[in-house]
Amino acid sequence: MKTPTYLLIILALWASILMSCNQKQTTDGDKQMNDLIDDLIGKMTLEEKLGQLNLPASGDITTGSVSSSNIAEKIKEGKVGGLFNIKSVEKIRAVQQIAMEQSRLKIPLIFGMDVIHGYQTLFPIPLGMSCSWDMELIEKSARLAAQEASADGICWTFSPMVDIARDPRWGRVSEGSGEDAYLGSQIARAMVKGYQGDDLSKNNTILACVKHFALYGAAEAGRDYNTTDMSRIRMYNEYLPPYKAALEAGAGSVMASFNEIDGIPATANKWLLTDLLRQKWGFNGFVVTDYTGILEMVDHGLGNLKEVSTLALKAGVDMDMVSDGLPGTLKQALDEGKITQQEIDQACRRILEAKYKLGLFEDPYRYCDVNRAKNEIFTPENRQVAREVAAQTFVLLKNDNQTLPLQHTKTIALIGPLADNRENMPGTWSVAGDFSKSVSLLDGLKNALGNETNILYAMGTNVVRNPELDARISIFGKPTKWDKRSQKEMIAEAVAAAKKSDVVVAAVGESSEMSGEASSRSDISLPENQKELLEALLATGKPLVMVLFTGRPLTISWEKANVPAILNVWFAGTEAGNAIADVLLGKVNPSGKLSATFPQNVGQIPIFYNHKNTGRPLAEGKWFTKFRSNYLDIPNEPLFPFGFGLSYSTFDYKNLKLSDSSLTAEGQIKVSVDVTNSGNYDGAEVVQLYIRDMVGSVTRPVKELKGFQKIFLKKGETRTIEFTLTEKDLLFYNSELKFVSEPGDFKVFVGTSSASTLEAGFVLK
Ligand code: NOJ
Prior knowledge:
Bound molecules: 1-deoxynojirimycin
CATH architecture of the domain at 651-764: Sandwich
Radius of gyration: 28 Å
């Protein structure tokens, strides 16, 4: 029987009412986007859809071992979705033109890059940035990075890297924000805001990519790309929060990590990429693999390229970075019924959505304004910001006898392999930078001192003694400046300079490429030859300041015991030398605080402040007791704890007060403390608040950061600093992975580092 027309009309009306109800959240913008993409997907061939999932590398900048070929041809055929690490607006414009003028459907390409700590104006490495504990500054640095990158054609950055890392042997600790989930989450948010601004389609904001999802920082033995394995409860409480925070801040893309989780590589892990990321956390952007992430699953032992590509797509991967797995094998997988058309369409749609949100469909050349490139990159203003930011990231680790700031010095001996070394100022992942334009410490001191002070420079020693190791740490165009002279000769020259001077500044530590990707170290002390140099300099009896360049916490127990002043400057970016001079000469008072614990030796690793108490904790003040949790040969204490950092001034903490002795679910407690700048310099201090949940259904850390404020106090000034605690600050994931608080006793600690001792308590009712 034929259905009467009037019934068909009623049914159609009903269906459209239902649809509009379902989409009542959809905005006009979403509708336009959906219409455009529906229309496009309707026209696309299977090859063109798979093309959108393809992210080859340009040959411009090397960040891995694959070189993609025939890119222009592939773009014409619609077989490329985007390109990464191609540098210069002219080139990007030309490539976009191929897509827009010579491909059938004229779908714009997306251009990504590892803009990690600045574009051409480089800021300190992320680990350094995190030691500023200054969210405004971090957001501003990401904003400037976005501005410069977008002026040069880039619309997508593979940043922020938010992996919690507690093993400084892992070279990539340099790329993240250290060991703490609370601090890491704040930084993740600030960076996403900085990159994406409040409107992604503006021509000076870029799409953020949160990486590496997830747990990459827990690589076993600190060896890069290694296995991770951890309980869900640790994952939820200690490792996942920064990724979640970045997504809550609106990050539009996620990069899957190399490591496995529960035995399944992240790139094929459906629990991670779909159940958690999309279903639980509501992420609606796209997921890109890491470099050859799909192909590597062959070596992980999950099957051949077609099989692992199928696994990746089904797990929730949308874009394939250089494996040629999704574009190369999914047609066959579809023919064999291993995947569905809908799964391909969904991934393709997510890439197209990102392009739409970036405004590329409206104007594919939105990020290709050649005039912007001329006027907005590496400007004096941006460099000035980089200089100011850099000085905020330095951590003063020791300053006996007020060796610093340098005063009334007529002659400075500037010694060390990092003293006159522009190439090694920016640190890892400074792919768009021009290293010859960065400011070395020698440049910086000369700029600051002019002819007033005599600077005697000597290299003193090489970065490392072994030429083979030197070659390994000079792969990416940041040579260490290997000097062929003998160690004896070089040290003799340095000692002669030291003897003629009032003070010795030794620029020592790691070179840029001793940290970063594939730069794990099993021994994280200062190279032996540099230690010999320090010994020789100390023997001159001249005051010695060690300026420490590093991309990770180092084991510098001997240096701590013997060198009177140590300023840790990480890798401070383009303006490193000027910023270091600002601090050495007292123009800026250092205020950085460690975001990662410095161990006494590698045997203590992993070491982090928010550890558990165990059933056999060591009593305070002891360093060994039989049958307690400790070592025979070394105390449990780190060399420098999380949150630690000195100032040229001193800060006293008094009168820790809580507004109440109990807290209810709806209530709040005000925590106040008086902080006095009791020294001789104006300066900034990071006031830190930690809590301890004394009794729980699961064990809780001995301390957890729950608040901090960076304040500036004039010398002699006292200020009452107030924090507010609510029940929300006490939430954690319990053994059923429910986010709960539990009534009972809590302690509060406030002070200058995680070792702070002012203590109070309250009860959660
Ligand atoms: C591999 C790294 O793990 C990742 O962080 C980076 O974004 C890609 N290579 C692209 O260079």
